Amino acid sequence: MEPGRRSEMLQALDEMENSGRLLGRSIVIFGHSHASEALVDALAARGYAVCAILDNNPAKQGAVYRGVPLMAPEGVRAFSQSDVLVLVVSRFFAAMQAQLRTLGYAGEVLSLAVYDSFAEYTVAARVLARRQARVRRGAATLAQIRAQWPQQHLVVCPHGALGDVYLAMAFLPAYRAQHRLGPAVAVTVQGGCQAVARLFGQEAVALAPHAMDELVQALLFTGAGNCIIAHHDLPYTDRIIRYLDHHMLGFDDYYRQAVYALPAGTAPAAPMHSEAFTPKAGLQPGNTVLLAPYAKSVVSLPTAFWQALADGHRRQGHCVATLVFGDEAPLPGTLPLCLPIAQMIPAAEYAGHFIGIRSGLCDVLRSARCEKTVVFPSCYYSTTPVKVDTFFHMDGWENIVYPGL
Amino acid sequence: MQDMETRLKAAEHGARFWRQNALEAGGQVLLVPKADAELVPLLLRVLHARAGERVRLLSQLPLEETAFVAPTRISQQDEDGLLALYTLYAFTQKLVVVSFRLPCGRKVHHLLQCGLATPEELIRTVLL
Prior knowledge:
The complex is a heterodimer. Chain A is of the alpha/beta class.
């Protein structure tokens, strides 16, 4: 879960707890994801139990997270309407709310973090006016970008995920060649995404998440030319992700073919820029395991799994480090390593072995010359019937699925 | 790139059209842009093959009413308005724009271009 959304969710929970809105309620969460698991954890830490997690994906129904059963949305009918409080941390909030109303649930449905600023299922005049103001702001942002880069092709990466930006950049040279485009400018969300674009030598501008959403809205609304919104699942007007409901298309192919319309055999470019890595005391070249147990989107694996992995490698005489960002804690007994994106490849090559949960960091390390292991939770990708280890398979890596969730 | 004010006015027209025709109250609403007339025979075939609930079909094209299709003839202004509103924000889950390229920037046609699906498959599995 992205740090910004996590703190938004925790703040909302604090406010609800302080105002007594959680007391005596049957708490139900709609949507199973990394974020909703974090919500279950946060509620448990405050002493509140969650009755159920609702999810539309039949493949997820029947599973259990920390004792909380995953069930079909119709399951909401099993609870007394006056007691139930449905909480959502998902970009499908508006759709979920509408679905619950259709199911006859008239109780409270609350979004604890703004994931999707695009949807609001009403054509009420006040909403229309607000949306008009929003698209004007987006157009102003576009004008500012265009003032600086009037001719460049804008490659807009709407989602703040490293892996998405990595693939958008990796196939960009082939896309530019196919369309005989001149220089491009990547427009990314603030944070590591801009650094990922720069690994490819790509000029990049970074926007705050809300400014990015406004820009995307303005691009759609005005039909602006000389740009592409380079994502496999956004914006809402595109529906290419639905192809996965019936056909398999891996993450790479989504960018290669669905996003950029490149021929099947087109090879992705590799990053060309990196910063020198200055080894930290205690790291041994070629005898270090870099563990990356944290991810923002896929569900987490138990700490015990990572701890056992770290202990096992230490017993074999390897030095073990945990890659951390922000307030993430290193695994006990391992060296914490907080690195800029540009040092990740040299660091992994220095260490010799990288083991990480499937996250955008794995994409960043695709071209690293070292032993690489990716670990997947056994779960389904988003709303699709495709397993994450199938969709996000890493060629040339050891791919492991952790079955015990 | 259309003038912003013109487009905002079009979106307001789209909202009025949506309200006046009470489109939110029913089931799925399919908008077939005039530019996508060639998709109509495929769309009708898909709708009849799936034999689902009757859908509202908005188009400038003259279409016959059938067991699965309730057509409404709309004007260019209505079409522009609904498309403008749809790109202003996701105002409903019920509207489906039956097009591989519209609204502007839609990439569904890439799947066709790359040989990953036939037009009929795309209508059945991606659009509807």
